[in-house]
Write a structure and sequence with these properties.
Layout: H1 2-15, E1 27-28, E2 31-32, E3 45-52, H2 61-85, H3 95-101, H4 103-114, E4 117-123, E5 129-136, H5 137-144
Helix pairs in contact: 3-4, 4-5
């Protein structure tokens, strides 16, 4: 129970002061933009992006796009996991540190992140992909058994 309070405090700090808005486009004229501004925390969800590519020698556009999208989703999930794990507690402890004392917490966190919604997939002219994923904070609360402020 103590660990859930610690995690709730960490995540509440991470989400404080966030703003709402839809996913912005990351691809212009078939190219990934040179500058990508991100605001990973929103009022009711977390959001990350992933950029993926595939083997250009695959025989069809569909195969190249499919594999690039899969790679982008995995990268976005990794970014989200790293973001949540790095959140600092008031005492300087991170979620990553809290996971060390509660082995089930990491499994719950990973399961929650794998369930994040793909809200935008954008393909580049060379069949790369930029994916935006979103995880509702309420779902994260339920999966991890915590309550945010």
């Amino acid at each position: 129970m103590r660990i859930n309070v610690v995690v709730a405090s960490v995540l509440a700090l991470a989400f404080a002061g966030a703003a709402c808005g839809g996913p912005q486009s990351r691809v212009k004229k078939g190219q990934v933009q040179n500058t990508i501004d991100q605001d990973p925390t929103r009022k009711s969800y977390l959001e990350t992006i992933g950029i993926g590519a595939s083997d250009p020698n695959l025989p069809s556009d569909t195969q190249r796009k499919s594999l690039a999208r899969d790679a982008a989703i995995v990268k976005a999930q990794y970014e989200m996991l790293a973001m949540v794990k790095g959140v600092q507690l008031e005492g300087g402890v991170t979620v990553s540190r809290a996971i060390e004392t509660d082995s089930t917490l990491e499994a719950k966190l990973k399961e929650s992140i794998k369930g994040a919604e793909v809200i935008k997939s954008e393909f580049t002219a060379d069949n790369g992909c930029v994916v935006t994923i979103r995880l509702p904070k309420k779902r994260l609360e339920e999966m991890m058994g915590v309550k945010f402020k």
